[in-house]
Amino acid sequence: MIRPATPDDVPTILRLVHELATYERAANEVKATEADLRSTLFGAEPKVFAHVAEHEGEVVGFALWFVSFSTWLGKHGIYLEDLYVSPDVRGHGYGKALLAELARIAVERGYGRVEWSVLDWNTPAIGFYKSLGATPQDEWTVHRLTGEPLRALGASEPA
């Protein structure tokens, strides 16, 4: 079963985020807390959303996403920040069902795309995404400002 996340799901989502980070070889990089997720997902004006997958009444996967925009399409889209399904229930269709729910939302709202990033070494995920018809955007490279470079640029004087 796929459903929108509720505040009661936050501890499980955070546990799954930690599992995902461990899988992605970045366990020490997770700084999020339950309070962070609760505030972000269920605060006064949420800008991030989550859906969960349940197996026998237990949350076993999640998709965390937000609305994006394409100037080229002139339409909103969905950016999938994280998709994760516990290893013991992979292959049961939960990942596909989560992505299908996001696709349904995108189509229903008239959005132009659903997109996400995947680590280049994560061949199981890449194969799964390709099996759904997703195409890699190899010509684009992700750039990121964080930590001290982010603070320094934010503190710089406008030209």
From TrEMBL:
Alphabetized Pfam families for the sequence: Acetyltransf_1 (PF00583)
Keywords: Acyltransferase, Transferase
Annotated CDD domains: NAT_SF
InterPro entries: AcTrfase_GNAT_prd (IPR017255), Acyl_CoA_acyltransferase (IPR016181), Diverse_Substrate_AcTransf (IPR051016), GNAT_dom (IPR000182)
Keyword check for Transferase: yes
Boundaries of every N-acetyltransferase domain copy: 1-159
Keyword Hydrolase: no
A GO molecular-function annotation: N-acetyltransferase activity
Family, similarity comment: Belongs to the acetyltransferase family.
Name of the protein described by the UniProt record: GNAT family N-acetyltransferase
Source organism of this protein record: Actinomadura rudentiformis
